[in-house]
């Protein structure tokens, strides 16, 4: 059977999906009486038009890379991890505890310790649903969703009753020591001159890139990845091959939870400098859309994370500079998710058909 | 025997209706999928009141042709004429209203609906179910009497045997007033007794003037029940002949385009020391039903033990336990060493390290991962072997692709492209991939389940040859097959399973068709006692009570 060219599959179709989503978003903007062309201009210039905008776009993208990778790894083992939000929340707790526990002499050592703390807490939060799925057959979608709520409540309790400094009014930890602040893009050599002091993007972005590469190695180059993918594609065949389902589910979910937890080095350690309530801000859920759009491949996840970073930052600018309400940004994001994820096949079938027919016509000619 | 009479009746019917318009006439049907020409200029005429067989290897284009007739695919060229009228069939609704009913290989029934609910599904008369159900119940009763199509209308589908589920599919078609029935590989899932019953039903339908198209790759069925037969090869109709005027050998030749040796030529076995010893093996499944009720058997090096029996009598469980993915009690020794049946080492990888290779019965769900490339499948189960690792962290993918390329050439897998996903290969080539993977390890014990199920004749020959070769190199082989012909031509010794027990075992030379048939039904009797050198279980009923 003739196949569609690869570039159609990985580039043309996502781009067309995106265009449709933007066109419909534009219609919605028109309906509320604003100019869609102006809206797009504001979004693009706000998110991509200046180093300042990029500093925010890449900061958000870093969050989404971690949570997107988390969803992707679990997906390869056919586990739908909806719990990125809770795992990232717990990751934040882990990072905060590590940073507050010890007077770290330098940010680099603190970063390594914080990564271990965040990943461990995130993994631990994924471990319980994973165990219940592997051993008891409780559906992972349900349990991870419930663990998001438990995670939020747990953080609430910890901040209000345990970690809040004496006399402080808001539910948040104390500020971390200055030595643990991660270098932002402003502090970096060469590119630093372009970015202002206030941009939140920091070295975590490079950790996220490294994570993309490591996940690619893990999934496509290691025995463990082979087993994860085999189990994800066919449980019965995996059993025949002697691959332990319990092991695959547990390991894949622990890695997934760990990646979600790692997000905290960006938002808590790199930007917040203390742990506050709801510091994850929905990035766990955006990760699902990012993985979906990125087809669970690290390169795709990276690109989709940049896109969603753009939507996040551009959307914020839109609310500032026009009368378009902030809620509409959510609508636009939802449309992008809808078209790139849920409606993907709507466009895919006719396009593939077109290219197959064209290839045949060329052969016959 | 039913078949012979039926053929006679059918031929008379054909003669009487010769002047009538054909029930179905296809003229010059062509259909291509990409570069593959699935159907090329196909023309057939099927007269009303006859059974027309369509036979061909896997991938010959039989199912595509029927899918066009049922409106699943649109032909690139050609015409469909139903009862003398040119008919467009853009979808299955149009096929149904043209009087065509289809019984798929994989049934399309709602498992937790009753028979009656399934029958009216999509053919309800109004918003309320009650009148439709009442009407269907009456109609069902009539059809049951007319065609021997008895099923309890209030039984849930999931409670029914496969044979009964198939009857529901036929009833569904008849309830929609189909007078042309298409059956796609209907006996693939049936026991021999169920298949016989199906043929009686088809015969009754023919007597009532229904037209039946039977798609199969089993020559015996064609000879037994059809009036005329068309042979397909590589998308083309190579011949249409009257069944009475042809022979299985001729049909086989037409199917593959060359003469096929249906019997394997092999030297007598030279058994060495005992490799596999199984004692008192018991398996209880999740529902608490005992699937294996104390199996004792042994296989020596350089010997093929064939396990015969109707599917579902414990053969699958036996393979699963030996292959390491089902728990059991009892003892299994390989080369004198006991193997773990319940603990940490009762998994497939431990078995493979012991030199046990396993070609599973179901290559789609067990033997292969269809989405994986051929090279990934070629190491599946052996992926932890040191030979496939580049270093402590990553696998040697390039080396595996290279190894796969060579193995594919040795096993004549077509096309020999390691990066192609397993699902793009035909059944026979898929099986060759599994076989290459398992045989090339030079196992001490090879487990083989249904090695040629859904495999075309050319590949069958090749597969049989490789199995015999492995035997001659001194491997012990356990062969499970529901095809008696396969057991007879490959095995050196035969054991017959029935209801989780081995009813009898002995040398293949003295096994008679009727004797094995009796054992497969759990019966003893004179036919069985007449087989020299056979040991018969006490569980075999002494007299034929059937």
Automatic annotation (TrEMBL), chain A:
It is a multi-pass membrane protein. The chain crosses the membrane at residues 12-33, 53-75, 87-104, 110-128, 140-160, 199-219, 240-263, 275-292, 299-316, 328-347. It is found in: Cell membrane. Its main location: membrane. Keywords: Cell membrane, Membrane, Transmembrane, Transmembrane helix. GO terms for cellular component: plasma membrane. The keyword Lyase does not apply. InterPro entries: ABC_transp_permease. It comes from the Bacteria. GO terms for molecular function: transmembrane transporter activity. The keyword Membrane applies. This is Sugar ABC transporter permease. It comes from Thioclava pacifica DSM 10166.
UniProtKB/TrEMBL annotation, chain B:
PANTHER family: CARBOHYDRATE TRANSPORT ATP-BINDING PROTEIN MG119-RELATED, GUANOSINE IMPORT ATP-BINDING PROTEIN NUPO. GO terms for molecular function: ATP binding; ATP hydrolysis activity. This is ABC transporter domain-containing protein. One of its GO terms (cellular component) is plasma membrane. The keyword Amino-acid biosynthesis does not apply. SUPFAM superfamilies: P-loop containing nucleoside triphosphate hydrolases. It comes from the Bacteria. It is found in: Cell membrane. Residues 24-259, 276-524 form the ABC transporter domain. The keyword Membrane applies. Keywords: ATP-binding, Cell membrane, Membrane, Nucleotide-binding, Repeat, Sugar transport, Translocase, Transport. Belongs to the ABC transporter superfamily.
């Amino acid at each position: 059977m003739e196949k569609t060219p690869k570039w159609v599959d990985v580039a043309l179709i996502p781009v067309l999906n995106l265009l449709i989503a933007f066109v419909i978003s534009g219609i919605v903007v028109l309906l509320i009486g604003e100019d869609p062309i102006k809206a797009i201009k504001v979004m693009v210039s706000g998110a991509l038009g200046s180093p300042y905008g990029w500093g925010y776009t890449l900061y958000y993208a870093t969050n989404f890379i971690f949570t997107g990778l988390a969803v992707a790894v679990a997906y390869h083992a056919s586990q739908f991890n909806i719990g990125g939000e809770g795992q990232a929340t717990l990751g934040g707790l882990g990072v905060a505890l590590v940073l507050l526990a010890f007077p770290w002499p330098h940010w680099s050592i603190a970063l390594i310790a914080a990564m271990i703390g965040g990943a461990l807490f995130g993994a631990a939060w994924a471990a319980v649903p994973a165990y219940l799925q592997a051993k008891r057959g409780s559906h992972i979608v349900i349990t991870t969703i419930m663990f998001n709520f438990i995670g939020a409540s747990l953080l609430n309790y910890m901040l209000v009753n345990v970690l809040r400094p004496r006399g402080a009014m808001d539910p948040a930890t104390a500020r971390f020591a200055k030595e643990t602040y991660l270098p932002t893009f402003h502090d970096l050599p060469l590119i630093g001159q372009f970015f202002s002091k206030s941009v939140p993007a920091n070295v975590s972005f490079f950790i996220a890139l490294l994570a993309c590469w490591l996940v690619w190695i893990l999934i496509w180059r290691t025995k463990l990845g082979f087993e994860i993918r085999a189990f994800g594609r066919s449980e019965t065949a995996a059993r025949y091959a002697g691959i332990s389902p319990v092991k695959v589910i547990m390991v894949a979910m622990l890695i997934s939870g760990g990646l979600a937890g790692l997000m905290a080095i960006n938002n808590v350690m790199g930007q917040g400098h203390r742990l506050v309530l709801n510091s994850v801000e929905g990035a766990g859920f955006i990760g699902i859309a990012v993985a979906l759009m990125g087809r669970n491949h690290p390169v795709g996840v990276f690109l989709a994370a940049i896109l969603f970073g753009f939507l996040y930052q551009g959307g914020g600018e839109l609310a500032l500079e026009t009368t378009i309400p902030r809620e509409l940004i959510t609508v636009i994001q939802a449309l992008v998710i809808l078209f790139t994820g849920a409606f993907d096949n709507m466009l895919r079938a006719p396009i593939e058909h077109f290219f197959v027919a064209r290839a045949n016509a060329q052969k016959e000619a | 025997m039913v078949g012979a009479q039926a053929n006679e009746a059918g031929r008379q019917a054909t003669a009487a209706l010769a002047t009538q318009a054909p029930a179905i006439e296809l003229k010059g049907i062509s259909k291509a999928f990409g570069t593959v020409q699935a159907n090329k200029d196909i023309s057939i005429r099927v007269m009303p009141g006859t059974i027309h067989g369509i036979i061909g290897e896997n991938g010959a284009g039989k199912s595509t042709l029927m899918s066009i007739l049922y409106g699943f695919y649109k032909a690139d060229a050609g015409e469909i004429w139903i009862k003398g009228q040119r008919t467009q069939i853009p979808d299955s609704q149009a096929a149904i209203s043209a009087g065509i009913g289809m019984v798929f290989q994989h049934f399309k029934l709602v498992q937790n609906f009753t028979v009656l609910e399934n029958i009216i599904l999509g053919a309800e008369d109004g918003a309320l179910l009650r009148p439709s159900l009442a009407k269907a119940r009456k109609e069902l009763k009539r059809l049951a009497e007319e065609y021997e199509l008895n099923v309890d209308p209030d039984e849930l589908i999931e409670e029914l045997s496969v044979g009964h589920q198939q009857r529901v599919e036929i009833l569904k078609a008849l309830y929609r007033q189909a007078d042309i029935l298409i059956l796609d590989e209907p006996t693939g899932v049936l026991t021999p007794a169920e298949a016989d019953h199906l043929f009686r039903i088809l015969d009754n339908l023919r007597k009532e003037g229904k037209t039946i198209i039977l798609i199969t790759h089993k020559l015996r069925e064609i000879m037994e029940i059809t009036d005329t037969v068309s042979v397909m090869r590589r998308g083309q109709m190579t011949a249409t002949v009257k069944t009475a005027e042809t022979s299985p050998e001729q049909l086989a030749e037409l199917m593959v385009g060359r003469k096929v040796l249906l019997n394997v030529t092999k030297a007598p076995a030279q058994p060495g020391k005992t490799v596999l010893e199984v004692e008192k093996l018991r398996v209880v499944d999740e529902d608490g039903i005992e699937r294996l009720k104390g199996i004792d058997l042994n296989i020596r090096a350089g010997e093929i033990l064939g396990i015969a029996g109707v599917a579902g009598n414990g053969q699958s469980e036996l393979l699963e336990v030996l292959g390491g993915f089902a728990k059991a009690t009892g003892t299994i020794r390989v080369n004198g060493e006991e193997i773990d049946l319940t603990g940490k080492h009762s998994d497939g990888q431990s078995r493979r390290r012991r030199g046990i290779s396993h070609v599973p019965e179901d290559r789609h769900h067990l033997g292969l991962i269809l989405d994986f490339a051929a090279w990934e499948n070629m190491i599946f189960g052996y992926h932890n072997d040191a030979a496939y690792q580049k270093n402590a962290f990553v696998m040697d993918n390039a080396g595996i692709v290279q190894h796969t390329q060579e193995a594919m050439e040795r096993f004549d897998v077509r096309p020999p492209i390691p990066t192609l996903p397993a699902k793009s290969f035909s059944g026979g080539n898929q099986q060759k991939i599994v076989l290459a993977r398992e045989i090339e390890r030079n196992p001490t014990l090879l487990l083989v389940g249904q090695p040629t199920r859904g495999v075309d004749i050319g590949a069958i020959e090749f597969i049989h040859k490789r199995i015999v070769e492995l035997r001659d190199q001194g491997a012990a082989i356990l062969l499970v097959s529901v095809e008696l012909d396969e057991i007879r031509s490959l095995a050196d010794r035969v054991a017959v399973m029935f209801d989780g027990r081995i009813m009898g075992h002995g040398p293949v030379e003295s096994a008679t068709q009727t004797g094995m048939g009796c054992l497969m039904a759990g019966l003893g009797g004179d036919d069985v006692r007449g087989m020299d050198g056979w040991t018969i279980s006490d569980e075999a009923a002494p007299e034929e009570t059937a």
